[in-house]
Amino acid sequence: MTQTIVDTTADGLARNGERDTDRERRASECPECAGTVDHDEEHGERTCTECGLVLDADAIDYGPEWRTLDDEDGRRVGPPVSTLRHDKGLSTTIGWQNEDAYGNQLSGRKRKQLQRLRTWNERFTSKNAAERNLKQAFGEIERMASALGLPEPCRETAGVLYRRAVDDGLLPGRSIEAIATACLYAAARQHGTPRTLVAFESVSRVEKLPVQRAYRYLSTELGLQIEPADPVHYLPQYASELEISDDAERVAREILEAAKHRGLHSGRSPAGLAASAIYGAARLTNDRLTQETIGEETGVSSVTVRNRYRELLDAYGEARDR
């Protein structure tokens, strides 16, 4: 058996220190040109500052991996907290595929076992009625927002509004679908991407009247300060649906600005004004667009378009003459 003898005398310790110092010096010098070696911690590289030789690459960083995702959330791994999840995204989801990591189909016994795990996971992630309520409502908000093409911030705001309604006890006696639709309608108006109630009715599981009542109730109880919708906010979606030219969209915007300057938007449907402005602009730019086509795509009746576009064109003509 070999026995290692450590020299603990003063001379021995000095020699050990000199060897360590010499080792560190050689590690900090380039073996090619004896230049200074620089350690780039961000990229995990050790390179020579003189000749550019790369000594090490892809070094392992043993430090923490903290990321600041928002003001209150700093976690090592995982996505940021989402207000559109009943548990804010902190639970585990078991996928529906009956495959292993290599894409191979599972056996019948394994599939049954995985299905039992999914069932118990589903029960544990929504333990009470309140969590099941949130889960159903947030699913409805995601479905309707996807159908209407609403952006992610709008969906997050709708989730926050619905959670506030649940915390304040505003849901008893009202359907989950009506409150969820009203929250999304309010969020769309707050973010400047409004949709008409007719559009919401087409994707919601409830009719327009319950949504109107739920929206008025939420506005009163939650103290929502929502300004009247601007007709200009409806132009981008209508222009996309009707596939009008850029010139027609620009003229329609100018028509609405002239109408607002004269106060013609007061007390009138912003969606109807936007559709009428598009029809008037199409006539000025020689775009082939009928009142019936506008009514089918926007949900605004052709009667409204016919009654509004003339006075909008009059206001536009007066604005150009000044």
From TrEMBL:
Sequence repeats lie at residues 139-222, 233-314. InterPro entries: Cyclin-like_dom (IPR013763), Cyclin-like_sf (IPR036915), TFIIB (IPR000812), TFIIB_arc (IPR023484), TFIIB_CS (IPR023486), TFIIB_cyclin (IPR013150), Znf_TFIIB (IPR013137). GO terms for biological process: transcription preinitiation complex assembly. Residues 16-27 have a biased composition (Basic and acidic residues). Zn(2+) binds at residues 30, 33, 48, 51. GO terms for molecular function: DNA-binding transcription factor activity; TBP-class protein binding; translation initiation factor activity; zinc ion binding. Residues 1-27 are annotated as: Disordered. Residues 24-56 form the TFIIB-type domain. It holds the Pfam family Zn_Ribbon_TF. GO terms for cellular component: transcription preinitiation complex. Keywords: Initiation factor, Metal-binding, Protein biosynthesis, Repeat, Transcription, Transcription regulation, Zinc, Zinc-finger. Belongs to the TFIIB family. Stabilizes TBP binding to an archaeal box-A promoter. Also responsible for recruiting RNA polymerase II to the pre-initiation complex (DNA-TBP-TFIIB). This is Transcription initiation factor IIB. It comes from Natrinema ejinorense. The lineage of its organism: Archaea, Methanobacteriati, Methanobacteriota, Stenosarchaea group, Halobacteria.
